[in-house]
Amino acid sequence: MAQIPRSSSYGAADSAEEEKGWRFERRYMVALLAFFGFANIYAMRANLSVAIVEMTSGIDQSINGTTVHLPGEFENWTPFVQGAILSSFFYGYILTQIPGGFLAHRYGGKMVYVAGVAGTAVFTLLTPPLAKMGYSMLIFARFMEGLLEGVTYPAMHVVWSNWAPLLEKTKLATFAFSGSYFGTVAAMPISASLGQHFGWPMIFYFFGLAGLAWCYVWWKEVADTPSQDLKISTDELTLLQRDAINTNTYIVPWRMILASKPVWATVIAHFCQNWGFYTMLTNLPRILGDLANYQLEKAGFIAGLPYLAMGLVLIWAGQFSDHLRKERGMTTVRVRKFFCVVGFFGQALTLLAASLTRSPTWLVAWITISMGLGGLTWASFSVNHLDLAPQYAGHLMALSNTIATLPGMLGPLIVGIVVVDYTVAQWNVIFYLTTVIYALGGFMYVRWASGELEPWASDHLPFASELS
Q1: Fewest CB within 10 angstroms: 28, 43, 148, 411, which?
Q2: How many angstroms separate the CA atoms of 340 and 378, rounded?
Q3: Looking at the predicted structure, is the pLDDT value of residue 54 above 90?
């Protein structure tokens, strides 16, 4: 696993720390546990894309040397029904983004984040019995998972507004977010293997229990703010308090937020990136089966490769972004635009190449490269909220992620309508649509993005003044 980034010199505080010898500072512990938190919630989100193939199409098993096909338990679910099940998560997810930002600013990112993960884990454990009651109950379970998980990204932005020094926010935040992709990497082959050997219900039991185990560790080890952490060193506390932002005493200027072009640059980039990501998240095992003739267990393993590439690129891009800003003196906006535009247009070109190839090996290679380049865009727009208005970062992420959830709702339904016979031509329609959306995201970001503090973020109004 990639190493958690350590900061370089921060003056006297770091010099004193170096004299005492190396220590694993508390903000890196927060980053490590946040990494595993996102890994858990994305594993619980992604496992259905593998499980539903087994649930509807069945599996092939070797019995006494003979391969026997075992029919799926829910073979009567049509492609449209499957699309509705896969998209139901996002109907809940979209509802709690903005409430999640308010809750995290008021009650603390630590509590809201763990509540979201714990609730998702509980409904993951309930998925098998609910599914056996009918697809409408499975839709309900996935809706509730989305509803509870929707608070996690806004909550984590509030965590980083307290725990990330000014020149480390990109690498700490992107390291934590990269857990999403490593969790997806793990979920694909583990889900395929569990389903093949123990049946599809075990997929949900395994990841649900893993999520609850993580919640216990997070609650015991993480504090809402550095000043509440009993294990933090004086030097690290001094460093973090120097860059501290008050995140819960100001009126949120929604009118100015909604009129801000830099805010909309991040929102549009987030939407366009999620269109491609969610399309692959919910359909990649099926794509590999239809276009590359991979069986479920092999498809589950291969489907994890693009997310591994994306996670590794995101970690590298986050660290390199802060290196360019701190050591090379590049402006924040230049760094953000460079990574985002290269990522988007690279994704568009490589996905177009995937649509043109007829080789299963090259299909996997182009999809992997395309998804991997998404790490460049995430290292840009996902932390841009902290550049524009750190004290409102949770609210901005909530707005951004609300709109960026729409692809998760619409994408599976569009796939269900377009891809009826699972042919190359039908899947290429989905690839071409995604290519156009990637290009749009890159164009709008380079036009409107900023890396500077917004005027309305430096002229905030305390509640007390508003009420007097």
Answers
A1: 28
A2: 7
A3: no
